[in-house]
Automatic annotation (TrEMBL):
Pathway linked to the protein: Cofactor biosynthesis; thiamine diphosphate biosynthesis
Quaternary assembly: Forms a heterodimer with ThiG.
Keywords associated with the record: 4Fe-4S, Iron, Iron-sulfur, Lyase, Metal-binding, NADP, S-adenosyl-L-methionine
Identification of the protein by name: 2-iminoacetate synthase
Described purpose of this protein according to its UniProt entry: Catalyzes the radical-mediated cleavage of tyrosine to 2-iminoacetate and 4-cresol.
Domain Radical SAM core intervals: 70-299
Keyword hit for Zinc: no
UniProt record similarity statement: Belongs to the radical SAM superfamily. ThiH family.
Documented EC number(s): 4.1.99.19
Cofactors required: [4Fe-4S] cluster
PROSITE patterns reported for this sequence: RADICAL_SAM
Length: 370
């Protein structure tokens, strides 16, 4: 059994219709319950819930403070390579884009590490394009131990791997893996993933199961908001989380909600989510699950990140560069996507403190459990 089995029992159109048929009374019922289920989540992300946003925000704030206190975990992405063997319509690293390709060697990685550590980060997310031959396990075996020596917490966002490969990477220091389905609508997924291993919808969908079986400490999931109708896609994320927590209860989970950003060969969103709707979604995830970590990246604007920070977010990236060598090299070219919040790590830290929160440069769980 895996989530693929449960996924095949779900019907996109039925779920969408159910979400859009929710009423004010459904929303009020969900808000008044001490513990909410997926049916309540449908109500909370429905158009009927929009007039209740202030109440949702207050509840979300309270639940987050009760579970996470006033801590805000900070992390930074470290892009190791922009080589990619996939053709994806929404990504600047797509193999069909004629751009300069770069994979960092050990000396270049060392320079990036020095630059990142100078900004105080102790939690890093390794990111690559998906190229199994040139940026696969051989490369990871060389780089992961070297990088882990310098950082308390090490996460990866790379191509999906087999269970045995994840288990090996865990022995080398890997703590967490982020793997986003992009969209849970199979035919839409096919429209945007044109060539390469990423065309295998079910193998990607099964990745969190393999990660949990390999004993990875934390798994991050999410949808790329804009590829499909956002409410239905985000319900599938919630259903995926519900399955994972029931099946692999010893693993921690995080959710991200990236909205499409400009990139090389830019794609126009099929479904536009407003800032207000993203706040609604963040609060709905928190009301559904008081334990899950919610992460907000520099894709979003400084003002939005500042305002939404208290409402349910538990971790934020800062000072992000989305190209290999972005922190230490001068001649870098391609970004995977354009960031929106370009503030320095110190500026983001000051903002967090000004709002009465405690910046945590390590992964919050490991920082406060020992």
């Amino acid at each position: 059994m895996s989530f693929v089995d449960q996924f095949n029992k779900l019907n996109w159109d039925d779920i969408s219709m159910s979400i859009y048929s929710k009423t004010a009374s459904d929303v009020e019922r969900a808000l008044n319950k001490p513990k909410r289920d997926l049916e309540d989540f449908k109500a909370l992300i429905s158009p009927a819930a929009e007039p209740y946003l202030e109440q949702m925000a207050q509840l979300s704030y309270s639940l987050t403070r009760k579970r996470f206190g006033n801590t805000m975990s900070l992390y930074i992405p470290l892009y190791l390579s922009n080589l990619c063997a996939n053709a994806c319509t929404y990504c600047g690293f797509s193999m069909e884009n004629r751009i300069k390709r770069k994979t960092l060697d050990r000396d270049e990685v060392s320079a990036e590490i020095d630059a990142i550590k100078a900004m105080k980060f102790d939690s890093v997310l390794l990111v690559t394009g998906e190229h199994e031959t040139k940026v696969g396990m051989k490369y990871f075996r060389a780089m992961v131990p070297m990088i882990k020596e310098q950082f308390n917490y090490l996460a990866m966002e790379v191509q999906p791997l087999d269970q045995e490969q994840y288990a090996e990477l865990k022995t080398l220091g890997l703590d967490a893996v982020m793997v986003y389905q992009e969209t849970y609508h199979p035919s839409t997924y096919g429209e945007h993933h044109l060539r390469g291993n990423k065309t295998d919808f079910e193998y990607r969908l099964d990745t969190p199961d393999r990660l949990a079986k390999a004993g990875i400490d934390k798994i991050g999931i999410g949808a790329l908001i804009g590829l499909e109708e956002w409410r239905t896609d985000c319900f599938y994320v919630a259903a995926h989380l519900d399955y994972l927590e029931r099946t692999y209860w010893q693993t921690r989970y995080s959710i991200s909600f990236p909205r499409l950003r400009p990139c090389e060969g830019a794609l126009q969103p099929k479904s536009v989510m407003t800032d207000k709707q993203l706040v609604q979604l963040i609060c709905a995830y928190r009301l559904l699950n008081p334990e899950v970590e919610l992460s907000l990246s520099t894709r979003e604007s400084p003002s939005f990140r500042d305002n939404v920070l208290p409402l349910g977010i538990t971790s934020m990236s800062a000072a992000s560069k989305t190209q290999p060598g972005g922190y230490a090299m001068d001649d870098v070219e391609l970004e995977q996507f354009e960031i929106s919040d370009e503030r320095s790590a110190a500026s983001v830290e000051d903002m967090i403190r000004a709002k009465g929160f405690d910046p945590v440069w390590r992964d919050w769980h490991s920082a406060y459990s020992g």
